[in-house]
Amino acid sequence: MPPLTNYAKNGIMSSQVCIDANLVVRVLTPGQESAQAIALIEAWQQAGHSLIAPALLAFEVTSTLRRFVHLQAITPSQGEQAFARFLQFPIRLSARRSIFPLAWRFSQELHLPRAYDTAYLALAQLQGCDFWTADERLYNAVKGQLAWVKWVGDFHSDQFAPL
Question: What sign for the dihedral angle of Cα 3, 54, 117, 154?
């Protein structure tokens, strides 16, 4: 089996970008790294890049928005608006069965407790693309081993291109 750190197919970068639920929530709700997340999405759209994620992203975003309303972090109206924008979000969700064993392997080899976090890594590896996250804990856990994992907090639109 190939090493987990080697993802580019034939050395060619993909026009796809894998993103996680944390990044999507940053786009939909005000908060830390929201401006960077919005700038990234806009840059990718302008460059014609496709956004992808494992299908579990839909449940994570829906659950997070609902939790924010329940905890009164956002108003019910803000929650409804954010959820409506999410339903229009330009992302292709993948339910490829090959994500599961690779997510399991990433969890084992990177000593991570949750396979849903590594499902994003698995899809990015399978598609040969970068993975962008707003989960600083996950980023810090893997950045030394997976150079194609990027953190939204490191993005500054005036400093470098997103890919």
Answer: positive
Measure the CA–CA gap between 59 and 55, rounded to whole angstroms: 8
Which tokens hold the place of 95? 């339910």
DSSP SS3 for 9: strand
Q: Is 56 exposed, middle or buried (0-12, 13-18, 19+ CB in 10 A)?
A: buried
Asked whether 162 and 40 are in contact (CB, 8 A), the reply is yes
Q: What residue spans define the domains of the chain?
A: 16-95+130-153
pLDDT per residue over 107-157, tens digit each? 999 999 889 999 999 999 999 999 999 999 999 999 999 999 999 988 865
Domain 16-95+130-153 class? Answer: alpha beta
* Torsion-angle region of 130 (φ positive above 0: left; ψ -120 to 50: alpha; else: beta): beta
| Sheet strand arrangement including 92-94 | 92-94, 50-54, 16-19, 130-133, 149-151
pLDDT in tens, 44-72: 999 999 999 999 999 999 999 999 999 99
